[in-house]
Amino acid sequence: MWFFSDEEKMLQDTVRQFANAELAPKIEALDHEEGFNRQAFHKMGELGLLGITVSEDDGGAGLGAVSATIAMEEMGAVDASTTLSYLAHSILCVNQLGSNASPEQKRKYLPKLISGAHLGGMGMSEPEAGSDALGMKTRAVKSGAGYVIDGTKTWITNGPNGDVFYVYAKTGEGRRDVSTFIIERGMPGFSTGKKFSKMGMRASPTGELVFEKVKVGTDQRVGEENSSLRMMMKNLDLERITIAGISLGIARGAIEAATRYAKERKQFNTPIGAFQQIQERLAEASAWYEGSRALTYNAAKLWDLGLAAGKERSMLAAQAKLQAAQMATQVALDAIQILGGYGYTREFPVERMMRDAKLIEIGAGTNEIMRLIIARQMLGTEVADALTAGL
Ligand SMILES: Cc1cc2nc3c(=O)[nH]c(=O)nc-3n(C[C@H](O)[C@H](O)[C@H](O)COP(=O)(O)OP(=O)(O)OC[C@H]3O[C@@H](n4cnc5c(N)ncnc54)[C@H](O)[C@@H]3O)c2cc1C
């Protein structure tokens, strides 16, 4: 990318080396057994990747959205699962604490999360509230000097094995009355429920967080009561830009594998790369990847420069995520086609890449919700929501 600084290029090299050394050799087995590369998180801590967007004063690397997206792309090119867990830890949990927690909360939680001693996650989605996140039913009710929390969160990345969770709960009657609480494994009444077995992203554990009369003090609440909506939405935008980086990584990995294969594999005594239909797939994949890459890093750069805010920022993030997620699934499917029968087996990584790519069309807001955000900005809510408004 033409605007990467020298620092960003160095980060790219460092993460690429780390991914090839620490992630690539293990992902095949971890994907098969639905394991988790915990060791990689200790190494990421040593490299300063876990608090990538947290200020240096708070013990982080003090970098921005472009750097975080670079880290996602480089890791995503070899192991999208561990990268998804890294995103949940660094962007959904650590970045939120760094941006919104009190000095005491930061001192208590950030050092272990940034070193990799603790694993973090974020709880927003619920069994009956996915796309309609504000329909959440988990409630924190005032009780004495604190709150009692009841409810269930689901689909939580790092849920089964995380230590610290950034959790949203309703604290009032209105849809927008959302507050945030820091929840630790081991708190009485808090447990991690079912772990899901998944089609892709299999080395990124996903599960439930269950709250049964969990008592927390006000010192576990982040920010003011009923005031979390703005920071939740802002973080969703950053999540969408950075998860688009994982899609870029998957696509790049698939294109590299397919290009290598097209040069080596011979049929009719000719490398298959000489066939125009193979060339067409490779050329289209390359152009589509570069287009998504420009869109994603543009959104990240505008974030870092503070040049996009509010609805405009949400639209840019939604455009990047929609485009990159669709692109990666299609490119991974095309790579399978180029590899033929081998592409359909576990002998090559492209079938895993396709299974992983599909998740990004669902997580962090589905493709449909991305289109809704973009259409609302283009048409205005009066037109875009006319049908539902009339019901
Ligand atoms: C592997 C994985 C990891 C995840 N990690 C986390 C995490 O760490 N933390 C967290 O809080 N959540 C997490 N999620 C949850 C994720 O954000 C939700 O799955 C997602 O928002 C969709 O919600 P849902 O699955 O309930 O689908 P639903 O909302 O039930 O949607 C079902 C279908 O209806 C469509 N739909 C819904 N509303 C509309 C509409 N208005 N217009 C058109 N179509 C619509 C959807 O696009 C989809 O196709 C994760 C999910 C997965 C699968």
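^ flavin-adenine dinucleotide complex. The domain at 122-222 is CATH 2.40.110.10 (Butyryl-CoA Dehydrogenase, subunit A; domain 2). The chain has twelve helices and ten strands.
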